[in-house]
Write a sequence for this structure.
């Protein structure tokens, strides 16, 4: 498979990582860094309450708002791994109408995030394996590795034939189990600032690199579990990966610094990403609420019990729908579903996109525009 010169170049000794023990680690925290973490924590807590404040605690749109924020975080996390997909492509994939291979892969990340936020048990190896299983089960060619700790060496960087020129060589496979046990003990501590604990746990997970593939996406899903467990964001998925996307060099450099023994860069990187996520995520929530309000105005005079009005808030979480989706989501028959879609189309709330008699799909352009604007804001902020 490789040339003789490449085999020769890759033959010899190399160094692989040995993760530091964290369960009893006592970090030194300056007053300035502590204040930075408090500010980031406050920003995320405020964002966590924002959807309920904007929509109302009893709003039928709260669930769909949470769903679209989760999907947005999943898309951003995947983009860090160069898996780019638009909001429209992802919405089409959710109803089985998309053809993009990236979309199908990102849907796996959505399922992993859903598994993460649904966890009510303590963080455990089985929970991590469950998230990873959901992630890779949708990635062509990787199904056999889904939910399985790796039994071979992996590395990051050039040189497929061996690890000697790699940027990072992950720990030997026989270290993984004990390293994860130490990580879980660290994550279970209650004597550390939560944002510091989350940032360091993420960096440690990436250092352990327990899987053949999907370590980054699983590690960022781990962040969402810890945000919920800490109470910082117990109602809403924080688009923290969007904040990391704004400066990927800083993020990767901070991971490298952590592996070299300096945790401060990754903690500061997470604090900055949290503030960006809270601000940009808040703007997205406001834009989605505005799109919903405009649609309600277009439906003025429709009787309150109409199926079309029941469908409207669901469009925040799924801005592209077909008749089958409406039937499942609202537990109605095909005639009722099509009647609701016709009403929303006639009032200008949604538009049919295919022009076909069969396989029709409808989209809410205002909601898709809000999602694309969020992506554009992240792109403009990138360095």
């Amino acid at each position: 498979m490789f040339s003789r010169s490449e085999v020769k170049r890759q033959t010899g000794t190399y160094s692989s990582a040995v993760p530091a023990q964290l369960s009893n680690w006592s970090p030194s925290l300056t007053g300035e860094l502590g204040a930075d973490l408090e500010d980031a924590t406050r920003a995320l807590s405020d964002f966590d309450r924002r959807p309920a404040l904007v929509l109302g605690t009893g709003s039928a749109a709260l669930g769909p708002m949470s769903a679209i924020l989760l999907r947005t975080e999943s898309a951003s996390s995947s983009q860090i791994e160069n898996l780019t997909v638009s909001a429209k492509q992802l919405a089409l994939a959710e109803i089985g109408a998309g053809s993009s291979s990236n979309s199908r892969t990102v849907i796996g990340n959505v399922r992993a995030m859903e598994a993460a936020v649904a966890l009510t048990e303590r963080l455990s190896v089985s929970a991590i394996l469950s998230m990873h299983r959901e992630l890779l089960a949708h990635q062509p060619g990787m199904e056999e590795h889904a939910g399985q700790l790796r039994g071979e060496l992996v590395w990051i960087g050039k040189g497929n034939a061996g690890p000697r020129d790699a940027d990072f060589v992950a720990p030997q496979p026989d270290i993984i189990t004990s390293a994860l046990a130490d990580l879980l003990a660290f994550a279970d501590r209650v004597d550390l600032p939560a944002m510091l604990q989350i940032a360091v746990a993420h960096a440690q997970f990436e250092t352990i690199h327990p899987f053949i593939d999907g370590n980054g996406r699983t590690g960022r899903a781990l962040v969402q579990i810890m945000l919920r467990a800490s109470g910082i964001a117990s109602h809403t998925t924080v688009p923290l990966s969007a904040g990391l996307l704004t400066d990927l060099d800083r993020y990767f450099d901070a991971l490298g610094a952590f592996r070299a023994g300096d945790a401060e860069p990754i903690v500061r990187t997470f604090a900055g990403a949290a503030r960006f996520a809270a601000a940009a995520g808040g703007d997205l929530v406001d834009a989605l609420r505005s799109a919903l309000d405009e649609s309600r105005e277009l439906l003025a005079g429709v009787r309150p019990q109409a199926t079309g009005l029941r469908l409207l808030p669901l469009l925040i979480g799924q801005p592209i729908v077909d008749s089958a989706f409406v039937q499942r989501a609202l537990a109605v028959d095909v005639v009722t579903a099509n009647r609701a879609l016709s009403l929303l189309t006639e009032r200008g709330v949604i538009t049919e996109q295919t022009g076909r008699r069969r396989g029709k799909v409808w989209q809410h352009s205002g909601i898709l525009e809000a999602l694309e604007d969020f992506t554009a804001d992240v792109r403009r902020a990138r360095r």
User: Anything to note?
Assistant: DSSP finds 17 helices and five strands in the chain. The mean pLDDT is 91. Strands lie at 155-156, 168-169, 320-321, 351-352, 362-363.
